[in-house]
Amino acid sequence: MSDPITCPICAGGPAEPSVQFRGASWPTFRCPKCTVEFVWPLPNEGDLKALYDWGIYASRQYLTLASTDRRRARMWDGILDEVAQHPAPPHRRVLEVGCGYGYFMEAALRREWAVEGIELDPQTARRAAKRLGVVVHEGDGRTALGPLGRYDLVTASHWLEHVPDPKAALSEVAHHVTPDGLVVARVPDSGSPVALSSGPRWTWFCPPVHLFYYSERSIGALASSAGLRVVSVRRHRGDAHLWPLECAVAIGKHLLPTPRRGERPQGWTEGVARSRLKAAVARVTEALDTIPESLVPPAGWNASELVVLFAPA
Ligand SMILES: [Zn+2]
Fold this sequence. Notes:
Layout: E1 16-17, E2 28-30, E3 37-39, H1 45-51, H2 54-62, H3 66-84, E4 93-97, H4 103-110, E5 114-119, H5 122-132, E6 135-138, H6 141-145, E7 151-157, H7 166-175, E8 177-188, H8 193-198, E9 212-213, H9 216-225, E10 228-236, H10 243-255, H11 267-289, E11 305-312
Parallel strand pairs: 4-5, 4-7, 5-6, 7-8
Antiparallel strand pairs: 1-2, 2-3, 3-9, 8-11, 10-11
Helix pairs in contact: 3-4
The site of zinc ion has 9 residues, from loops.
């Protein structure tokens, strides 16, 4: 019999095989105490390096559609309005971990806050620094944070689900926040209606790229383990698609199952079907992005991401 698995977030356990993501090609477990779902065994550093061929990863992740860029700008303005309600110096010193091309930094600059970023991909880092005229530190979040000082606001979007040790990563962030500062994190919400109804075919269930799957409860446990407390947590659409498209993608994945590790698509027909599906999704995404969310009921179904404000505990 294999050894019991202890939860990497709350040290509870033993973890049990995930019911929500059962049948997935990667073994996924759930902590009975804090409810976080996670891939186990976690990939080692060498596997992760190979996985993130950053030239390819970054170009895939950060080059988005103009309609998505406009939606992101509106999203960040909303989040920063929320942040601005908390006391802090008028010219806040802010840092974004994993800044990509700088959507958040751009929104913070509009408020005349002093902005810096950290970005793993050197090409992306240079491009963001040049475009916005700000300092972007190159490197992985935890290592690059080390020598930096304290900030009034640290943000991390879609980072905590990628890192193999989120407790250590968020603890490092906590060390770089002023006593009355805030941390903003955005993560996929595994407790959202779309995630619960899609199971392992949920768009954001993508092991081993995403290693941890958080709900409102488990993100709170992660905060406690890192010396932070949750100030507010809410669901919003964020980077998710509108729910009809999320469900269409889940059905597409059911019809065209993802090849298991080391397998290639079954021949030419499946390869063509897969690339056509991707192209169709991109076209439909662009069209759907122009539709106001309020016109796609039921309310709440478009919310597939958590936005969490943390403060030092
Ligand atoms: Zn746990």
